[in-house]
Amino acid sequence: MAQLMDGKALSQIVWEETLEEAQAFEAERGRKPVLAVLLVGEDPASKIYVRNKARACKACGIESRVMRLAAETTKEELLDIIRGLNADPAVDGVMVQLPLPRGLDESEILASIDPDKDVDGLHTVNLGRLAAGKEGFVPCTPQGVMRILSHYNVEIEGKHAVVVGRSNIVGKPMAMLLLAQNATVTICHSRTKDLRSYVQSADILVAAVGKADMIPGDWLKPGCVVIDVGINRTDDGLKGDVEGQGADEKASLRTPVPGGVGPMTVAMLMHNTMEAARRHG
Ligand code: NDP
Description:
This protein is α/β, with parallel strands linked by helices. The protein has helices spanning 7-29, 44-59, 75-87, 106-111, 124-132, 140-151, 171-180, 195-200, 244-250, 261-280; strands spanning 3-4, 34-40, 63-69, 93-96, 160-164, 184-188, 204-207, 225-228, 232-234, 237-239, 253-254.
């Protein structure tokens, strides 16, 4: 039976660490770290995510400045606001909640954020720094996965890590982080032929696709470690990309959905904001 890796409990530890750091920062600098969060439009899931981020900020001693903008906000208006936040010395981190309403080009908007305030780590400069092994902001979800692996003492060096999914937000930075820790990394995607054969040889499997139960438990290598990033709303509630019951039988460790990777994503945003404040001064 696989041991569950409790991302919720670990996220609490990260929150507490961040709170201590934020309090020390405030005592020294006379202000709290500040995160600006831009929410454009009325997407219900995005509203919940933004509310959760504001709540996490409060618990971590970080001031959140949530700006709610109408779905009709133009590109120029949004770019103007981001330019203002980039130039504002009182703001440490800037993030734009995705997805943006149709008509706003996400890559253009993300590119307008000052890379040194890009606490989501999605600016191409930060993705480039990650690829080159330089210091920068690392996207929160894969960074949270690395923290989970380290907390549960999962050996990475020399292991075969298979990442299913190649988005800029999860799959690609995930693969780079595992590579940086000396895993042998395979990246699979929708055009991969015979996905099963790769999954079967994975010591560490990271599934980041967005299709409920798409990886059956009987594909897994006995004793492997399964990180399930997928969040899929189904009639039976939230599900991951890996079939949970099957994973319980085959894996040695696995993250549950919900309560695995999800809470760590917000926790790493808090961590990155604290880091931004420290660098920014
Ligand atoms: P994207 O839709 O951007 O990427 C999905 C990836 O899955 C693509 O690379 C795609 O390949 C690949 N894919 C699709 N179908 C298959 C298939 N049949 N076999 C193999 N690969 C396939 O999603 P995200 O990376 O943004 O998110 C992935 C999942 O993680 C979603 O469920 C999302 O909700 C969740 N998520 C969870 C977070 C958390 O905090 N826990 C944070 C972010 C995301 P191709 O490139 O070829 O199209």
